[in-house]
Amino acid sequence: MIRPVSKSDAESICTIYNYYIEHSAISFEEDIISADEMQHRISEYTSTYPWFVYELDGEVVAYAYATLWKSRSAYRFTLESTIYVAHSLNEKGIGTKLYQKLFEELSNSNVHTIMAVIALPNEVSVGFHEKMGFEKVAHFKEVGYKQDQWIDVGYWQKVL
Predict the structure, then answer these.
(1) Count of CB atoms situated within 10 Å of the CB of 39
(2) Is it the case that residue 18 has pLDDT exceeding 80?
(3) What local confidence, expressed as pLDDT, does residue 15 receive?
(4) What are phi and psi of 98, to 5 degrees?
(5) Which pLDDT band holds residue 91 (cuts at 50, 70, 90)?
(6) Are 78 and 70 in contact (CB under 8 A)?
(7) Are 93 and 45 in contact, with CB atoms under 8 Å apart?
(8) Higher-scoring residue by pLDDT: 89, 153
(9) Which residues of the chain form beta strands (DSSP E)?
(10) pTM to 2 decimal places
(11) Rounded to the nearest 5°, which phi and psi values hold at 126?
């Protein structure tokens, strides 16, 4: 089941997200996020943009949301999308359904373009975003440093 996020989902979302913070370079955050901090982010982001969770057997196992890409006024029709699926459930179609719901919601607004920012290398995320209609538009070399390594970042873009 896909539904809008609620503050009570913060703990489940932290479980999903903190795994990636601790065990990968996919997120550039280096310290785990508390449920209080996640509740704050949920309140802040959902005041303007959509955020959805995917429930499986009553448990939140994935989430996707949109946020402002850049703060300057002319960028107001461009958002950045984020999606995380519990690491044990990748490649089960959950992300596709979540992104479809997010894009449906965004296409009913004044959003024109969605940006995805991907830490590289990340074949799974690249393949997923390209399957969802994103196209690579930029590659920045060694812009992040995590887990004792320099990390590249790519930008993928989808025009609605």
Answers:
(1) 18
(2) yes
(3) 96
(4) -65, -50
(5) low
(6) yes
(7) no
(8) 153
(9) 2-4, 51-56, 59-68, 78-85, 113-120, 135-146, 149-159
(10) 0.94
(11) -60, -50
